[in-house]
Amino acid sequence: MRYDRGMSVALRSISCVLAIAACGACGDSMAGQAAAPEAGLGSDAAVPDARPLGVITYLCTGQPGQPRVLVYTFENLWRHVSNITASNAIYDMCTTRGYTVMVANDPRAVNATHLAQVDVIAFTVTSGPGLDALGQADLEAWIRGGGGMIGIHSASATEPSWPFYVANIGTTFSGHASDLWPGTVQVMSSTHPITAGLGNFQLTDEWYFFTRRPETVPGMEMLLALDESSLSPDYPAMYKQGYHPIAWAHELYGGRVFYTAFGHNPDDWSDPNVLELTARAIEWAAHKR
Questions:
Q1: 214-266 pLDDT, tens per residue?
Q2: Cys-Cys with 30: which of 14, 22, 66, 77 at CB 3.0–4.6 Å?
Q3: Distance in angstroms (rounded) separating the CA atoms of residues 161 and 177
Q4: Which run of H or of E encompasses 163?
Q5: How far is 172 from 95, CA to CA, in rounded Å?
Q6: How does pLDDT run across 133-170, given as a tens digit for each residue?
């Protein structure tokens, strides 16, 4: 079954929809609550004479000293159900891990004002172009100044015409076999803070391959790989890569960056291995691990 095209989905509504200016605390999950309007810090009405800052859709204020994350969710190429489940999962880390999390689907929300308030930006199952030249300049300057970034799944098919973004992610999505395939994810680094102490695990997903092999990019540390021997015998041979990395990290441009190809399957975001890896990646990118 394919999940990314032709599907209509609705966000779970939440109770903690707050303007950043209010800085209210949130202890509730997004599930089963009443939604509030998309208004808050950076709404155009609040700054009529300045560059529009975009809309922060949801904010949950966590504990002091914990990572502060901007979850960016704009899709302009494909539509994924997991765009919703992944952003929900990270949002819930406000409650489960004490992170401060703001969620934005508005490309204008990626700007110097918002980035100055967070440690990490998470391109969360994004796709296609979205940022304008000002947003690109602000994001690049912030990353070069030490801001952290994580990219999830189709983040490698995001901003494909922006050379800095592509270099920062490490490569660009090229393709995958159709449908979802169960396989074994192997931990490739036992020493990196994101994967140290973790074991191999099973996951069902579509398995990306890339225009440039990430393991050939100097400075990229491979963290996870797909064990292709664990795939079903009817997995198409033409999509096998031999060595098949699916997650890596680097510090090449000033900030800490993590990317993973998993996350297409909505069920991934209830898998404890996926949640633990994502949380560790956020903490590492925020210099908290």
A1: 999 999 999 999 998 999 898 888 788 789 899 999 999 999 999 999 998 99
A2: 14
A3: 24
A4: helix 163-169
A5: 33
A6: 999 999 999 999 999 999 998 899 999 999 999 999 99
Q: Distance between CA atoms of 70 and 117, rounded to whole angstroms?
A: 9
Q: Is 97 helix (H, G, I), strand (E, B) or coil?
A: helix
142 in helix, strand or coil?
helix
Token output for 100 = 């401060």
Mean pLDDT for all residues in the chain: 83
What's the rounded Cα separation, in Å, for the pair 283 and 273?
Answer: 15
How far, in Å, are 18, 67, 114, 272 from residue 285 at the CA level? 25, 9, 17, 20
Q: Which domains does the chain have, with CATH numbers?
A: 44-175+215-225+246-285 (3.40.50.880)
Q: Under a CB-based contact definition with an 8 Å cutoff, are residues 150 and 122 in contact?
A: yes
Pairing of strands 201-205, 181-187: antiparallel
The DSSP string of 229-285 is GGS-TTS-GGG--SS-EEEEEE-SSSS-EEEES---SGGGGG-HHHHHHHHHHHHHH
Higher pLDDT, 211 or 188: 188
Q: Residue 129's closest CA among 161, 154, 153, 105?
A: 161
In the block, residue with structure tokens 């990646």: 281
